[in-house]
Every structure is written in C-alpha cells, then in structure tokens.
Amino acid sequence: MSDQGKSVAPRARRCNIFFFDGWIGVAPTVIGLAQMLARAGYEVDVYSRRTAFADTGDLGEGIRIHYVDLAPRLLRRPRVLARLIEFARFLRAWHPAPGGKPDIHVGVDAMGALLAAHAARRDGGPIVHLSLELDLGERRAVRSWLLRRLFRGAYAKSVCCVVQDRERFDALSRALGCVHPRPFFVPNAPTSATVEKSDSNYFREVLALPADEFPFLIVHAGVVEDIVYSKEIAAAFSEVDLGCALVFHERTERDPADPYLVQLRERNRRNLFLSLKPVPFDTIDRVFAAATIGLAFYRPVDANLTLMAKASGKLAFHLKHGTPMIMNDLPSMVALNERYGFGVTIHDPSSGLEMREAVRYCLDNHARLSANARLCFEQEFQLEGKAAPFLQFVSSGYPA
C-alpha cells in the first residue's frame, strides 16, 4: 500500500474514508467532504484502490490518500465472485495509518460500506454511508443475494446516509428494502464556488484550436463511451456548422488508436477533437473554464443514470463557471432547467437538427443563460452550504 499526501501534526479527531472503487480523482463529493472534514479539525485518511482515473493533485493539509494496489482481475465471470475476491485482497493489503483509532468511518458505495463496517468492528467508531452510485440496479455489480445482504447490514449500522438528493435516496431505499432514518442530501459538486479568471484557454492550448476557425468550444467532459451517447453526439455535431469545436475530454488516459475513438472520428471528421489526457482534480477547473457550452448526456438504462441532476459532476462544474448547457431530456434535468433556465434539453442526441438549434439558442442567449447557470449553482450546488447539516451532525456527536 502506498501513501500520497502531506504529513501533518496529529489532530484532535480522525476520519477514515473507504473508496473501494478507486476513482477518487473524479469524485467531487468524496474530495469535498474530505476537505471540509480536514478544515473542521479531522485528520482524514482515504483508502482507495489505485486506478487509471485522473489523479487528485494536492488536496491540502490534513488529507492523506493511501492507495491499495490489487493484482489484475483473474475472474471475469461471475462478476460478484470477482468482487468478493478483490474485497478480500483489499483487506489483506490494507494497513491502517498510524495515529490512533479513528473517530468515524465513511464507506463510499456498497464495497466501501463493507470496508467501513470491518474497520468499525476492528477499531470501534460510527459508520457513515456515502452513496455516489446506485449500484444495485439490473446491470450493477452488487446483484447477488449475498452481497446485497452484506451491504444492507452495513448500511443499517451506519449513523447516517449521505446521498445527492431525495430521488436518489428513495431509489436506494427501494433497492435495499429499507429506509435510513437519517439521510443528508449533498450534491456531487466542487468544494469551492470561486471562479478564477484567466486569459488562457486549456483546450486551445493543448489541442491547438484556432479561435478564428472555431470561436466556440462545446465540451463534454468525462467518460467517452456509449453510455453517454458519445457516438450519437459526435455524429450530430458533424451537422453543426456554427463555428463550433466539439471536445470530448476523458477522465482516463486513452490511446488515440483505441477502436472506439477511431469510430468516433469516422462519424465526425469535421469538428471533433479528443482530449485524452486527464488533468488532476486540483486543476480541473481549467477544463470547464474553457467551454462556451457544456454537454451532459446520460443513457437512462437504470435509476443511477436517470436521476442525474444532482449527481452529475460535469453539470455542477459547468454551472459553477456559468456555462450554458445542452442536455438530454431526463426528467431530473428537465425539471432543474425549467426552474433556472440555464440551457436546453433535447430528445434525440443523434439529431443534427436538434443539436444545431440547441447550440444556436445557447449562443444567441449566452449572457442570460450564463447568469442563470451561476444562479443555479449558488442555489443548488454550493457544497459547503449543502453539507453543513451533515458536518453539524458529525461535530455534535451523532445525536439521535
């Protein structure tokens, strides 16, 4: 197990965060809560698998990240058995950081909950469940009776549940067959609301995009694959002739010769550009500051990808920077946009006509939509304000 982070003097309280799935560099909620707990006087130790996702960068004093290196997965099927084997390997490789017993254990999602429960049995202390992914649906890993039962047991022992919004909490409750009595609703959003102005533009620099040929940058940040309509969006933008460059910015490093990326280029040889080197989380704002218009599209295959309004990190970051948005018409996205008016929702991501009209609307009304985007962020996604009740609960000793 390897460590990352600044060595700090012992603090009055300690917190463990277990993030088994490991994509901490693209998990604003995990990073935000860790930073707020550190500012509240906790020494925060985050235990995570090492993955190919973007790095965290410098998260500030009081936070240490301990990476657990697991051997490559040998079993592809059944996936549940593979997850249990990986869980056992994680426990074998995990070594608690020195400095005394933790005051609180935070478990992220199902596997993190099991790790937090194990640590609590070992060292004592309460458990907090942090839900990022609704990983109990039809296509998710935790679908066996055994794992569901283990997760439900750990979940029931937690003193509270932190989840993005009421709708996702209700979906989690239905999946587990139990309703936690103490939910806190904290959106997936950046810690800081401050926007630093800069004369530089990240994508114009790294992709050499000339402003005279492409005055407008349309940015889709995050995973590039079918689950977010990447092929459909690429094809649609091949019909958008408004001086726009479509930029897909990945969260993991990809080979330009990847067959999927080759297919994307075949669908759009006109204005598609691929940014395939992720940036550390502590510099991620430069990605979103570079966008003229932001994109947020999710294929509604289950509750996890349907109830996305408060769970989409890319949406929250774009709103922070006052970026007008184009989204597909998921009910949660439609409702949020109807309330604040920061962009356009479209029905068919593959429609060049719909996409062209949406882009034109955003460009023609950019100033108004930008102001509305910022207002939406301030009202709905200010992490410190939204997380305040949870932090008060923790600092008060978990009152009943």
Distance between the termini: 37 Å
Rg, nearest Å: 21 Å
Stretches where pLDDT is under 50 for at least 5 consecutive residues are 137-142
CATH class group of the largest domain:
Alpha Beta
Strand order of the largest sheet: 1-4-3-2-5-6-7-8
Report mean pLDDT, rounded to a whole number. Answer: 92
What series of H and E elements makes up the topology?
Answer: EEHEEHEHEHEHEHEHEHEHEHHEHEHHH
**Please, how many helices?**
15
Instruction: Determine the structural class based on helices, strands and strand pairing.
Output: alpha/beta
CATH architecture of the largest domain: 3-Layer(aba) Sandwich
Q: Supply the number of structural domains.
A: 2
Proportion of residues in helical segments:
25-40%
The major β-sheet equals:
8 strands, mixed
**The CATH H-level homologous superfamily of the largest domain:** Glycogen Phosphorylase B
Which strand-content bin applies to the residues? 15-25%
Overall geometry: globular
CATH topology of the largest domain: Rossmann fold
List how many beta strands DSSP finds: 14
